[in-house]
Specification:
With 97 residues, the chain is an all-alpha fold. 67% of the residues lie in helices and 0% in strands. The chain is built from seven helices and no strands. The longest helix is centred in the middle third of the chain and has 16 residues.
């Protein structure tokens, strides 16, 4: 994690949501309360802002799907599209390779 770009996230996940957080705190809410109490309101606000900023970024996969959906059907539907559609529409298990 880039400490200069995400300093509050680095602090939150490095020092509070670490591998033993369940043992030490029990619930995510307790971890967040402990973080806000120990680090202060400025750091808690910074973490919230960074989380919001992170949430607005699309993942590459999401961007690829959004791009593909704007293309004509024949450019992105594979030969087994009808089988895939049937399986997902009927909530059958599927696997993508």
């Amino acid at each position: 994690m880039n400490e200069t770009k995400w300093p509050a996230m680095k602090k939150l996940f490095g020092a509070y949501f670490h591998q033993d957080w369940i043992v030490e705190s029990g619930t995510p809410e307790e971890v967040l309360r402990f973080f806000a109490k120990n680090e202060g309101p400025a750091m808690a606000s910074a973490a919230a802002e960074e989380l919001m900023r992170l949430g607005r970024k699309n993942q590459i996969f999401v961007e690829d799907v959004a791009h593909a959906l704007n293309l004509p059907d024949l450019q992105w539907k594979g030969p087994s599209w009808d089988c895939f559609y049937h399986a997902t529409f009927n909530q059958r298990p599927t696997s993508l390779i």
